[in-house]
């Protein structure tokens, strides 16, 4: 009962004091009572003894006065003298009675008193009264006898004696009384001290109990608090108090504080854990994964999803980027619009949603053994600077506690920052790596510059030393320059003449090339697209047709190139570059080139140099090589079994005289290409050198080729001052013999007029011309990310090409805008600025590509837009004009799409360092 | 200009002591690297090395050059990092296009008479120059009989050179250079691309050999018709420049060509042994 009862400190102290006061009161009452009884006793004792004393004195007085009065009377005989006697006689009796009553307790004194009484009575009876009688009768004789007998004297003496003894007794008794009082008095003193001691002890006990019960509790509280403080904030400890007082209240309050601190601390720790978890994560998905993995166990969630806000404006969506303990991909939607569902609503309202006691939920929490329906669902936003960056959803089989909610509220803020940081960091890292690269390059450039400046200084000194020498030379040079200038003027005039004269032919060639290639271009591109059959809409067979169309187109293209070659040679548009050719090298080069062909066809390939050939030959090595390549290709083409042989020897002078009368004096090389192929009938041997002639129609079909190769060979041979002869028998094989003389530069000039070189690519017979032939380099891919959403302006007048190109570009998700001519192009670029790239055909009606590029480049806003010129392949002059007009790069038609895409990747990539 | 300024700074009392100590520290570092790895930077131009050293220190938060040496000796991989830092990696395709144009016009005709041509790109870094040369020779019909050697002291960049792929973000500049250098074909026909790199055609790569070679310590390894060492010697001090020139001279075939950077000139000691083939273009021909 008492334990249960609540006693506060005030009552404890009050009770203590009350107890002490009670003890004091009791002791005072006891002492007072004792003192009072003592006092009374002293009083009684004093009054009684005094009375006894007085009574004894009065009896004694009466006895003595009676005796003296009797004597007086006896002498005088006057009655007046007898008064005291009678008075005494009457009164002593009363005194005796009182005394006898008083001392009734004291038998000794009583006996004495009786003795005295008897003595007095005896005196009265024997002495007093008879003597008085005697006097009254005047009996003198009796009186004399009386006196003589002196009987009275003796009795009076006895009386006196008795009185003395009585008084002594009485004094003795008084003394005894006083002694008794003294003893009691001492007792009282002692008991006073004892009582003091008892009260003191009681008071001490109470004080120690009360103070103990207060101080100990406080000490325990203090100790616990100190422990908590010293244990580095271990907040799990609690203060235990057994008492039920204010300390208990204090302890309870402190415990509450601790509990709330612990919660706070827990939240802080978890927030910190989540915050530290972010460190080192540089990628949003990883961050989201880590966040879920961290937070879900903390809030006892068994399932979690992470949605991040993507896009802007009305296109904002919340996209799931991470999940926790997800059932399968099906669980949880992958995305929400703003305001859609709880997730979207949460993002819009910027407030969390907590759903408890879900009735039936689609989502189950799945373990190996069980499928549990979550009880509670929590959706909360993660904000940064007042903007919802992400939304997280948790499901739990239990309910979320307020502690969890509080924690999430805190985490939300921190994590918003972290999220933003990571997103920022991803951006920053990207920028940083770019800028680092820039810095490195800059630094390297700076270094070079610095070193260069040092070098310059050195050079400056050197220059100063040689400047005098230079001054002399300068005079000489000036004179030379004047001479040169005049020579140059002459040359310029001459070359201008030449240029004009060749202008018409060159224009014709260019136009021809362009006109033929333009339709071919669309055929090639579209047939390639078809044959790739990316949509899978064509049957295999149809795709095969498309591939055949593509191959045929390529053949056609090769044909056009050959025609162009031929016409150029015939128009004298080819310049010779005369240099020294190492003769012994020729077979080796050819062997290198054709060995693989020979091996694949199972043919023997023999290359020989017969002794006695001149080691060096002055001629155009490249053309020579081209002739031989053509001849050998031909030989291999028409030979099914046996061998192909290349023989190099010094030409027989007679033969030379006959075939090349002009070069009879110099070295002439004879190079024979012999095969064991089908051979050529005699009547057709002359025909095969003419353009487009093969042995018969079938040959063409069977062996392919344009039939222009030999024509070109013969033209080249002529160009080199040589000739080609043929001996052949049907079924046995053919031998083509090339005679090449050693020629000097002047001779070469005579042979080929120095026209502006119109052909660049023509000179490389093996240059692959077509897309399909071009092998994909390892590592290149069809990655289209660079193209996605790029804006390209295609300027092209030919509808077929436009169609083909647009289709091909749009397949790469490029945004294509088409302009039919230069004017339209300029208009579109003005109206819709911001094109990433311009593909510009050169030949167009109204305003051609060159003029258009010129205009574009003069516009400061457009001068950096990459422009790719689409040129006719062979026209090197065209290319130069394109570059002058401001093209960034060029590509020739028909377009090789793979090459075009490579080129576009280059020009669509943001550049550094320049 | 900036050199003068630095000198002025070094003029005052404590700065002088400081720069003395720094010189000593750099000296010890280079000796240490040489002893530990065999890479000899002791004769590299100090001003350029110093900048590289300080750049590395700044990156790694180091206060003294000596702590760099300590890391180099104790931390695995750090030595390679330093060697990589110190090697020169600045290069581009058809760098200084006029050089290539002149090479095409003036040197290629001379090369035609050789049955086999060997070209050495000394200090080729990531190989851009070698690829440029291969393209040029391809267009001139000489590539088939040419063997190109690209060497650099830095194994890492040599490896990267072998790959023959260059970042797309430099390719526009390369295209411009190619066109200015008088390219006769279409630059885009030599490469294909992915989203990050331009990958050069295997036919271009086929005749190029990349290898590790150190101009400071290694000897000649063949006889060449052309040696190109452009913008490399500027990073060397006079001693190493002389050594390199000696090495080049010994490695050149008679009448072979040597090309230097547009800010470099032939060492005085060798001037007489060469004919200045293209006076302003820094192309010399061995007499």
TrEMBL record, chain A:
<dbReference type="InterPro" id="IPR005467">
    <property type="entry name" value="His_kinase_dom"/>
</dbReference>
<dbReference type="InterPro" id="IPR011006">
    <property type="entry name" value="CheY-like_superfamily"/>
</dbReference>
<feature type="transmembrane region" description="Helical">
    <location>
        <begin position="12"/>
        <end position="31"/>
    </location>
</feature>
<dbReference type="InterPro" id="IPR003660">
    <property type="entry name" value="HAMP_dom"/>
</dbReference>
<dbReference type="InterPro" id="IPR029016">
    <property type="entry name" value="GAF-like_dom_sf"/>
</dbReference>
<dbReference type="InterPro" id="IPR007891">
    <property type="entry name" value="CHASE3"/>
</dbReference>
<keyword id="KW-0418">Kinase</keyword>
<protein>
    <recommendedName>
        <fullName>Circadian input-output histidine kinase CikA</fullName>
        <ecNumber>2.7.13.3</ecNumber>
    </recommendedName>
</protein>
<dbReference type="GO" id="GO:0000155">
    <property type="term" value="F:phosphorelay sensor kinase activity"/>
</dbReference>
<dbReference type="InterPro" id="IPR036890">
    <property type="entry name" value="HATPase_C_sf"/>
</dbReference>
<feature type="transmembrane region" description="Helical">
    <location>
        <begin position="187"/>
        <end position="210"/>
    </location>
</feature>
<dbReference type="InterPro" id="IPR003661">
    <property type="entry name" value="HisK_dim/P_dom"/>
</dbReference>
<feature type="coiled-coil region">
    <location>
        <begin position="425"/>
        <end position="504"/>
    </location>
</feature>
<comment type="similarity">
    <text>In the N-terminal section; belongs to the phytochrome family.</text>
</comment>
<dbReference type="GO" id="GO:0005524">
    <property type="term" value="F:ATP binding"/>
</dbReference>
<feature type="domain" description="HAMP">
    <location>
        <begin position="212"/>
        <end position="263"/>
    </location>
</feature>
<dbReference type="Pfam" id="PF00672">
    <property type="entry name" value="HAMP"/>
</dbReference>
<keyword id="KW-0067">ATP-binding</keyword>
<dbReference type="Pfam" id="PF00072">
    <property type="entry name" value="Response_reg"/>
</dbReference>
<dbReference type="InterPro" id="IPR003018">
    <property type="entry name" value="GAF"/>
</dbReference>
<keyword id="KW-1003">Cell membrane</keyword>
<keyword id="KW-0597">Phosphoprotein</keyword>
<dbReference type="Pfam" id="PF13185">
    <property type="entry name" value="GAF_2"/>
</dbReference>
<keyword id="KW-0547">Nucleotide-binding</keyword>
<dbReference type="InterPro" id="IPR036097">
    <property type="entry name" value="HisK_dim/P_sf"/>
</dbReference>
<dbReference type="Pfam" id="PF02518">
    <property type="entry name" value="HATPase_c"/>
</dbReference>
<feature type="domain" description="Histidine kinase">
    <location>
        <begin position="511"/>
        <end position="744"/>
    </location>
</feature>
<keyword id="KW-0812">Transmembrane</keyword>
<keyword id="KW-0902">Two-component regulatory system</keyword>
<dbReference type="InterPro" id="IPR004358">
    <property type="entry name" value="Sig_transdc_His_kin-like_C"/>
</dbReference>
<dbReference type="Pfam" id="PF05227">
    <property type="entry name" value="CHASE3"/>
</dbReference>
<keyword id="KW-0808">Transferase</keyword>
<keyword id="KW-1133">Transmembrane helix</keyword>
<keyword id="KW-0472">Membrane</keyword>
<dbReference type="InterPro" id="IPR001789">
    <property type="entry name" value="Sig_transdc_resp-reg_receiver"/>
</dbReference>
<dbReference type="GO" id="GO:0005886">
    <property type="term" value="C:plasma membrane"/>
</dbReference>
<keyword id="KW-0175">Coiled coil</keyword>
<feature type="modified residue" description="4-aspartylphosphate">
    <location>
        <position position="841"/>
    </location>
</feature>
<dbReference type="Pfam" id="PF00512">
    <property type="entry name" value="HisKA"/>
</dbReference>
<dbReference type="InterPro" id="IPR003594">
    <property type="entry name" value="HATPase_dom"/>
</dbReference>
<feature type="domain" description="Response regulatory">
    <location>
        <begin position="791"/>
        <end position="908"/>
    </location>
</feature>
């Amino acid at each position: 009962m008492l334990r249960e009862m609540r006693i506060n400190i005030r009552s404890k102290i009050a009770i203590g004091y009350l107890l002490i006061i009670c003890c004091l009161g009791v002791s005072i009452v006891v002492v007072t009572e004792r003192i009072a009884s003592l006092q009374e006793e002293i009083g009684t004792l004093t009054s009684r003894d005094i009375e006894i004393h007085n009574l004894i004195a009065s009896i004694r007085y009466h006895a003595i006065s009676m005796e003296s009065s009797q004597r007086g009377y006896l002498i005088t005989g006057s009655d007046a003298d007898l008064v005291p006697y009678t008075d005494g006689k009457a009164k002593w009796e009363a005194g005796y009675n009182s005394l006898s009553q008083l001392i009734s307790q004291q038998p000794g004194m009583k006996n004495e008193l009786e003795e005295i009484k008897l003595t007095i009575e005896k005196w009265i009876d024997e002495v007093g009264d008879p003597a008085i009688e005697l006097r009254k009768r005047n009996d003198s004789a009796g009186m004399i006898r009386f006196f003589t007998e002196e009987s009275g004297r003796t009795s009076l003496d006895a009386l006196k004696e008795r009185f003395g003894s009585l008084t002594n007794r009485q004094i003795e008794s008084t003394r005894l009384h006083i002694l008794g009082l003294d003893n009691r008095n001492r007792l009282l003193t002692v008991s006073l001290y004892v009582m003091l001691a008892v009260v003191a002890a009681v008071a001490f006990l109470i004080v120690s109990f009360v103070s103990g019960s207060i101080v100990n509790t406080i000490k325990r509280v203090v100790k616990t608090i100190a422990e908590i403080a010293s244990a580095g904030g271990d907040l799990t400890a609690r203060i235990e108090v057994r008492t039920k007082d204010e300390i208990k209240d204090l302890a309870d309050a402190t415990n509450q504080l601790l509990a709330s601190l612990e919660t706070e601390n827990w939240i802080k720790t978890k927030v910190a854990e989540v915050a530290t978890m972010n460190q080192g994560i540089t990628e949003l998905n990883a961050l989201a994964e880590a966040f879920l993995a961290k937070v879900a166990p903390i809030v006892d969630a068994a399932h979690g999803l992470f949605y991040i806000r993507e896009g802007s404006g009305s296109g904002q969506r919340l996209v799931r980027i991470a999940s926790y303990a997800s059932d399968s991909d099906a669980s949880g939607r992958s995305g929400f619009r703003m305001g859609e569902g709880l997730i979207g609503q949460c993002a819009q309202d910027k407030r969390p949603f907590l759903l408890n006691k879900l009735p039936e939920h689609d989502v189950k929490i799945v373990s190996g053994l069980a499928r549990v329906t979550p009880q509670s669902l929590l959706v909360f936003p993660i904000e940064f600077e007042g903007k919802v960056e992400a939304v997280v959803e948790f499901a739990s089989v239990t309910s979320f506690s307020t502690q969890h909610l509080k924690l999430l509220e805190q985490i939300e803020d921190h994590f918003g920052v972290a999220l933003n940081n990571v997103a920022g960091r991803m951006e920053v890292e990207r920028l940083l790596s770019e800028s680092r690269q820039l810095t490195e390059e800059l630094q390297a450039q700076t270094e070079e510059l610095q070193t260069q400046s040092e070098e310059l200084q050195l050079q400056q000194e050197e220059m100063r030393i040689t400047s005098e020498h230079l001054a002399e030379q300068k005079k000489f040079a000036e004179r030379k320059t004047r001479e040169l200038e005049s020579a140059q003027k002459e040359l310029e005039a001459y070359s201008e003449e030449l240029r004009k004269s060749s202008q018409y032919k060159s224009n014709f060639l260019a136009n021809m090339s362009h006109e033929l290639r333009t339709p071919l271009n669309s055929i090639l591109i579209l047939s390639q697209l078809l044959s790739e059959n990316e949509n899978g809409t064509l049957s295999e067979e149809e795709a095969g047709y498309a591939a055949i169309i593509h191959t045929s187109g390529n053949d056609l293209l090769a044909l056009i190139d050959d025609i162009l070659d031929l016409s150029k040679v015939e128009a004298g548009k080819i310049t010779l570059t005369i240099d020294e050719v190492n003769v012994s090298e020729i077979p080796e080069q050819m062997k290198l080139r054709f060995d693989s062909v020979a091996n694949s066809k199972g043919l023997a390939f023999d290359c020989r140099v017969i002794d006695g050939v001149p080691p060096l030959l002055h001629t155009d090595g490249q053309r020579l090589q081209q002739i031989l390549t053509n001849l050998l290709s031909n030989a291999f083409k028409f030979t099914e079994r046996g061998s192909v042989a290349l023989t190099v020897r010094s030409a027989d002078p007679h033969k030379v005289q006959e075939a090349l009368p002009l070069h009879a004096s110099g070295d002439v090389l004879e190079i024979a290409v012999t095969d064991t192929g089908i051979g050529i009938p005699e009547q057709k041997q002359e025909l095969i050198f003419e353009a487009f002639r093969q042995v018969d129609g079938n040959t063409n079909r069977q062996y392919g080729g344009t039939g222009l190769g030999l024509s070109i060979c013969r033209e080249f041979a002529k160009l080199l001052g040589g000739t080609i002869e043929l001996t052949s028998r049907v079924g046995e094989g053919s031998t083509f013999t090339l005679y090449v003389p050693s020629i000097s530069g002047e001779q070469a000039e005579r042979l080929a007029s120095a026209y502006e070189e119109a052909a660049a690519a023509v000179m490389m017979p093996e240059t692959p011309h077509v897309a399909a032939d071009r092998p994909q380099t390892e590592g290149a891919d069809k990655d289209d990310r660079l193209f996605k959403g790029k804006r390209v302006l295609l300027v092209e007048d030919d509808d077929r090409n436009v169609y083909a190109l647009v289709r091909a570009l749009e397949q790469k998700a490029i945004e294509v805008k088409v302009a039919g001519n230069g004017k339209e192009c300029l208009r579109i670029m003005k109206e819709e600025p911001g094109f990433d790239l311009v593909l510009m055909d050169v030949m167009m009606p109204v305003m051609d590509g060159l003029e258009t590029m010129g205009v574009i480049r003069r516009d400061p806003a457009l001068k950096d837009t990459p422009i790719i010129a689409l040129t006719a392949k062979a026209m090197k002059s065209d290319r130069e004009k394109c570059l002058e007009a401001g093209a960034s790069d060029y590509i020739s038609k028909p377009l090789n799409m793979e090459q075009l895409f490579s080129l576009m990747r280059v020009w669509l990539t943001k550049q550094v360092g320049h | 200009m900036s050199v003068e300024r630095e000198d002025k700074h070094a003029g005052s009392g404590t700065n002088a002591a400081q720069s003395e100590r720094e010189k000593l520290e750099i000296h010890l570092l280079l000796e240490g690297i040489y002893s530990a790895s065999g890479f000899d930077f002791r004769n590299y131009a100090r001003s350029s090395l110093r900048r590289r050293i300080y750049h590395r220190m700044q990156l790694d938060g180091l206060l003294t050059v000596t702590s760099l040496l300590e890391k180099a000796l104790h931390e695995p991989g750090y030595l390679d990092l330093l060697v990589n830092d110190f090697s020169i990696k600045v290069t581009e395709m058809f760098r200084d296009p006029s050089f290539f144009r002149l090479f095409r016009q003036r040197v290629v005709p001379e090369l035609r008479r050789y049955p086999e041509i060997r070209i050495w790109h000394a200090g080729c870094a990531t190989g851009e120059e070698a690829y440029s040369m291969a393209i040029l020779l391809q267009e001139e019909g000489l590539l088939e009989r040419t063997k190109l050697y690209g060497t650099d002291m830095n194994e890492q960049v040599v490896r990267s050179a072998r790959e023959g792929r260059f970042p797309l973000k430099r390719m526009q500049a390369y295209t411009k250079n190619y066109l200015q250098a008088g390219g006769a074909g279409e630059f885009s026909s030599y490469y294909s691309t992915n989203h990050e790199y331009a990958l050069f055609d295997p036919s271009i790569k086929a005749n190029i050999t990349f290898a590790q070679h150190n101009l400071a310590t290694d000897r000649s390894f063949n006889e060449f018709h052309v040696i190109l060492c452009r913008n490399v010697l500027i990073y060397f001090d006079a001693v190493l420049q002389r050594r390199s020139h000696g090495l080049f001279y010994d490695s050149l075939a008679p009448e072979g060509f040597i090309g230097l950077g547009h800010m470099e000139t032939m060492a005085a000691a060798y001037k007489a042994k060469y004919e200045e083939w293209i006076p302003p273009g820094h192309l010399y021909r061995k007499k």
